[in-house]
Amino acid sequence: MNIKVSTARLAVLGWVVVMAAFPLVVRNNYQIFILTLIGLYTMLTVGLSLVMGYAGQVSLGHATFYGVGAYLTALLSARAGLPSWAALLASAALTGLLALLVGVPIFRLRGHYLAMATLGLNVIFNLMMKNETEITGGPSGFTNIPPLSLGRFVFDSDVKMYYLVWVVAAVVLWVSLNIVNSRVGRALRAIHARPPPAESLGVDANAFKLRVFALAAVYAGLAGGLYAQAVHFISPSSFDFLFSVELITMSAVGGLASVWGSIFGAAVVVFLGQFIRDKMNLILEGASGEQEIIIFGLLLVIIMVFLPEGLTSGGLRVVRGWQARRKAESG
Amino acid sequence: MDFTQQLAQYVISGVTQGSIYALIALGFVTIFNVTGVINFSQGEFAVIGAFVAITLAQETSLFRGQMTVGLGWPLPLAALVGVLAAVLVGVLLYRLGIQPARNASPLSQIVVTIGASIALRGLVLLAWGTDPYRLSPFTAGKPLKLLGAVVTRQSVWVMGLTVLAVLGLYAFFQYTLTGKALRASSANAGAARLMGINTRRMGLIAFALSAGISALGGIVITPLTFMTYERGLMLALKGFVAMIMGGLTSPFGAVLGGLALGVIESLAAGLLSSGYKDAFSFAVLFVVLLVRLGGMTRRSGGQALDRAGL
Prior knowledge:
By secondary structure, chain A is an all-alpha fold. Chain A has a single domain, classed as ABC transporter involved in vitamin B12 uptake, BtuC (Orthogonal Bundle). Chain A contains 14 helices and two strands; from the N terminus they run ααααααββαααααααα. The longest helix of chain A has 27 residues, at 205-231. Chain B has a single domain (3-307), classed as ABC transporter involved in vitamin B12 uptake, BtuC (Orthogonal Bundle), CATH 1.10.3470. Chain B has helices spanning 3-35, 42-57, 75-98, 106-128, 153-175, 177-187, 189-194, 199-221, 231-245, 251-271, 277-295, 302-307; strands at residues 60-62, 67-69, 144-146, 149-151. A two-stranded antiparallel sheet of chain B has the order 1-2. A two-stranded antiparallel ribbon of chain B has the order 3-4. At the A-B interface, helix 5, helix 11 and helix 13 of A face helix 4, helix 9 and helix 11 of B.
C-alpha cells in the first residue's frame, strides 16, 4: 500500500514537472493555447464528473455555467469597472449561487426529466446571450475583455495564462480528490449506489447533490472567467448545447467516476477535434464547422455501450479479458 | 387586420407547427412505452426523412457541390423513401446502440441517444451542409381563408396527414396482432415474454414505427419552414415537452400536448417576443414538470414514472 501511494505521488510529480517544463521546450503559442484550453476543460470536466459519476445526475447543460462565468467576468470587469481578479472571483461565486437557485427546483427531478430540464436551461441561457444584445453583445459577441491582473502583474501572454490556468486546474483537482475521498464522497457514492438505504441512514441525498452541482458550477464559472480573460472575446456559440455534449464526451472518455480521468478526457477530445478538423479538409474540400461531432457522437455511443468505465479502465478490462481468454485457450 | 384576425392567424400557424410536435411526441411515446427509453435523437429522424425526400424530389447538390442529384421523383414516392430511410436509421440505432445497452442505467441510455443524435446531425451536415432547404408545397394554389386568417394549402396537408397518422396508428395498435403485441410488451414485458412475444423484436418495431412517424412530420413541414441540419434537437425537445404535457405514456395526450404547445408558442412569439420563441416551450416544460411531478403524479401513472427513473 505504502509503495502504491508513493508511485502515485511520483506520477503526479512527474506530471507536474512535464507540464511546468512544456512552455520552456515548446515555443509555439498556438500549442500552448491549446494546452491552456485543455486545462480549462479539465476544470469543467471534473465538475461534470462529480455531478454525473458521483452524484449520478445527468447534466446536459454544463456549458451554461461556463458561459455565465465568462459573461459575468466580462460584464463586471469591462462594464462595471471591477478589478479583473475581483470580477473573476465574483463571477465564480455568482455562478455557484445561480446553480443553487436553479438547482433547488431542478433537483426535485430525476432521470430523463433532469436531463431535459438542464438541457432546457442551456437553451434558454444561450438564447439570452444571443438576444440581450445590449448586455451581451448578441451573436457577434462581447469584445475587449481586459486581461487578468494582480497588482502590477498582468497575465497578458499565452504562457502566463497557461501557468495560471494549470495552477487553478491543479487546485480544482486537489479539492475534488479530497471531496471524493471524504465523508461527502462516501455519502455521494452511497446515494448513487443505493438511494433508499443511504437516505434511511441519514444521508440527505438532495442536499448533497445540490452542493456538488453548485461546486461544479463554481469550477465552470471560474473556467469561463479565465477563458474570457485569456481570449478577450466571447460569443454565445462557445456555450451552446453542443459544447455541453462535448463536455459529456470528455467526462465519458475519462471515465464518469474518475477525477484524474478528466484531464485525459479533455485532452483526448481537444486533440481529436483538432485532428478531425485538419483532416476533414482533405476528405472534403472546404468542409468546416462541426463535422467532428460525427466522431464525438460515435465515440460517446461506443464508450457508453462497451466501455462505461471510460476509455482507459474500460479498454484495459477488455484487453485483460481478451488475454485471459487466449491464455485459457492455449493452456 | 384586427386583433381577432391576428389571434386566429396565430392559432392556425400554431396548430400547423404543433402538428409536427405532435408527430414527434407520438414517436417518443411509441418508443418509451415499449422500451422505456427516451430517445433524444428523435428529432434527427424528422431531419433525415426531410433531407432524403428533398434530394429525391428536386435537384440537390451534396457534399459541398461534389455530387449533384437530380432524380426529380414524384413527391409521394420521394416522401415514402424519405420515411423508409428514417425507419432504417431507427432500426440501426436500436440494434447497434439501444439493444446492447438495454440493461444499462437510464443515464447511460440517455448519453447513448445523445451521442447518436449528434453523430446523425454531423452526418447530415457533412452531406447537405448548413444551407436551409425547402420542398415545394404538395399542391399548388391560392391559400384558403378561415375566420379572416390565411390558411396555406400546405397547412391543410399538415393537419390532414397528422390526423391520418394518428388514426392509422390507433387502428394499428387496436386491431392488428403486432399492435396488440406491442401494447402487451409495454403493459408488462415479462408477461408478454411468457406469452411468447419476442419483446426485443417489439423494441425494434417500436423504433422503426417511431422513426417513420417523426420523418413524416419532418417531410410535411418542410414546404412551410425551411429544413436545416440543426433542427433535430429543437424538434426533439418540443416533442418531449409535448409528450410530458400529454402525460408521458398516452398517444392521444401526446398529440394534444403537441397542438397545445404549438399554439402557446405561436401566441407567445406573436404577442410577446419572437426572439425567445424556443424559450417559451421550456418555460412550459418547467411549469409542467415542477407542478405536475412535484405533486400529483405519484398517484397516477406511478409505474411509468418509475420506469423513467422518477
